[in-house]
Amino acid sequence: xxxxxxxxxxxxxxxxxxxxxxxxxxxxxxxxxxxxxxxxxxxxxxxxxxxxxxxxxxxxxxxxxxxxxxxxxxxxxxxxxxxxxxxxxxxxxxxxxxxxxxxxxxxxxxxxxxxxxxxxxxxxxxxxxxxxxxxxxxxxxxxxxxxxxxxxxxxxxxxxxxxxxxxxxxxxxxxxxxxxxxxxxxxxxxxxxxxxxxxxxxxxxxxxxxxxxxxxxxxxxxxxxxxxxxxxxxxxxxxxxxxxxxxxxxxxx
Length: 253
Known about the structure:
The protein has 253 residues and is of the alpha/beta class. It is 43% helix and 15% strand. It has a single domain, classed as Alpha-Beta Barrel (TIM Barrel). It is built from 10 helices and 8 strands. Helix 4 links the parallel strand 3 (52-57) and strand 4 (93-96). The radius of gyration is 17 Å and the shape is globular.
């Protein structure tokens, strides 16, 4: 049995030769406890298999996000609607995005992102749902994304100062941008409400063809007292069920 709760990001494993019900049944049998980033049409099926819905997107889009004052009204409306769904379905996390720089200075971008998050934070606090701003790499997958370094994200979270606004520390993305994963987790874990995985390079299986060795990273997360989910978010090179089983066992330290 895993010492940390594990979830799977639906988009990585669905539509890869395994029917939805079979994928969920296999995940539950492996030991997974939750599913992330999954369309609402599958939510009841997920619950029927004894799994939780761990996260959904709080707003759109990755590129047009919280770092623009003109986005406040739209994002507020979208987040409020998704908070209502999260309350109804007991979803603990809404994933949020800084948006692309598009020429915006990092200091000003942090100030605007925090300003917009302070505006919507009371809604999340009332709902008992956490807004997690995702750290993404701007080197390979999301060119020009602004929340691409941990310290920038931490600065924003500290300016917001809400128990319901935290970071999603994506291990794959931050390996690309920074490395020094364990030390970063130890230093900033109080600002991290969720974690994602994937192998680097390639964003594939957590195997010996990539450079991240996950067991000590997972142990470091557990040692912080973290009680949330570790979300497997890699694109499998082969059979998705076999890949999910191998990743689960590797991280079940």
